[in-house]
């Protein structure tokens, strides 16, 4: 119900309070990050912690880190990540902003040469940030060395006004009434703004006092390292968002009753309808699947970071492919699922008080920010094509592509599934997913060799990423899982996750010969049985997410199920209900009604 200005100020207030508590409680960086999650409104702090600080950590020298991170940790400065421009987003190499070195003053001149080079989108840039890591083309000795990161002060630390040469503002209202409108995504134009040479982030490359460009011995892809980090955190965000939506839809489905009453008896809970289960339970399973794969991805990222510190860069391509692919698949599935959860809740799901419209509007842009999902899947495809060609030349693949080493078997194997029960076997499930992913990648590599096209491989990338998610779910079930019967429930959800993908992508499985039509139909039969088995525990499985009513923010998803009184109460809070007769009655309704009345009496 807040206006844009009120919403923005409210976010500033909450973030300031969280910061105060962080200091008072001496929270670690990780704990502070968790606390930030509970602000639950996009705001400048997200960019400060999730992108500005990691960019300096990953791309700054030790000296630069000491200087800037000390201030950033204390919030003496507020930072953002200014990469995207009005005319350039996905194609980072296409950015136009320039950073031209001037040896006479030992400074870089930061400049926006065209309208399309205006920085556009960075969160917190519009009204809040005092500093930014700005990405620009480095030009020295007359040569363009491509994109590099620079730390720039944007606003005065005394009165917050923009520094000379910097034009800065908010880019305007966004999708939905609340959602991302709490964030001041910004526009910025630079008019020959000078910054000291040592504000170029110099871990990857340096410019000497004389203006000579020197590249370090680290791969230039580390320039993109911040994005790898954030994509990994976005997978965890997606799982959280999806579990919130599913929690609302499952709990409401147990309360809502329609049809089916016999002789005046109670109607049927909509959650008992098979159609409702087949639409909703795959999302329940996905919420768990994304959580487990998110935990694994966090481990992978930590492992890669440790290796990078000891100058082992070998796992960087895999980390890029996994973070890009999983960010893409999980955020797309989450946005689609939240939208479907609204429909699963019928008309009431469309009310803001259901919590679903806000959840959808906040999470929809995750399909775009931090790399458009299609563009990222094409990066995965590129990685797969390289791996296929390495396998062809005898190299043994490792990590998430290790299955490709089993090429002889996977290219010709036939699924062992013969009965409905066989689809309970994790090894049988894993094999068909591996065979499908490998066959699609090999087909794609063959097609590319005939007619090279950058866009080939999208579907192969999806198949590979789905295999990763299925595999990590299966591996999770091999761990010790506490709680009576918990493992059994998770096994059922794992089955639902995998089999609903076989159902959804049956065309791929059939056309690659991984599954026969009969096996596909057995998978559907198994799926129906699993839905029926999960039904009695569905509410417990969403209660297990342990969300408070306050955090869930939904009249439909209340823990106590008292949905109708909550909806009724919420309706009366609407500003339209502040008066019985609405504003505008005197000007627009009354004259019209009076006039019509007069006419009818003539
Ligand atoms: C957010 C709030 C929501 C809810 C509120 C509730 C709570 C808040 C809680 C949490 C919030 C947490 C997280 C969210 C926070 C922030 C998110 C908000 C905003 C998002 C910010 C942004 O969007 S920043 C801008 C992001 N931009 C992009 O992602 C651009 C995408 N484009 C690219 O990455 C590149 O252009 C490219 C990869 C597509 C192409 O690169 P290039 O032109 O160089 O071409 P190549 O394809 O040839 O690649 C060259 C080689 O480099 C390899 N490569 C590419 N990328 C990487 C990488 N990242 N790492 C390693 N290697 C990489 C590539 O594989 C090539 O290698 P070869 O060996 O094949 O040559
Ligand atoms: C809420 C939000 C917050 C953001 N925060 C920040 C921020 O803090 N800092 C920052 O720097 N940026 C930020 N961004 C910008 C974001 O990173 C970009 O929007 C994103 O990288 C996509 O780029 P684009 O908008 O240029 O889309 P485009 O690349 O123009 O995409 C348009 C369409 O073209 C398709 N397409 C593009 N290239 C290809 C290709 N090669 N093959 C096939 N299809 C293609 C895409 O799939 C898409 O459908 C934010 C964006 C949003 C929405």
UniProtKB/TrEMBL annotation:
Keywords: FAD, Fatty acid metabolism, Flavoprotein, Lipid metabolism, Oxidoreductase, Peroxisome. It is found in: Peroxisome. Residues 2-78 form the Acyl-coenzyme A oxidase N-terminal domain. One of its GO terms (molecular function) is acyl-CoA oxidase activity. One of its GO terms (biological process) is long-chain fatty acid metabolic process. It holds the Pfam family Acyl-CoA_ox_N. Residues 224-385 form the Acyl-CoA oxidase C-alpha1 domain. Its cofactor is FAD. Gene3D superfamilies: Acyl-CoA dehydrogenase/oxidase, N-terminal domain, Butyryl-CoA Dehydrogenase, subunit A, domain 2, Butyryl-CoA Dehydrogenase, subunit A, domain 3. FAD binds at residues 84, 123. The active site is at 370 (proton acceptor). It comes from the Eukaryota. Its main location: other. The keyword Lipid metabolism applies. Residues 426-594 form the Acyl-CoA oxidase C-terminal domain. GO terms for cellular component: peroxisome. Belongs to the acyl-CoA oxidase family. This is Acyl-coenzyme A oxidase.
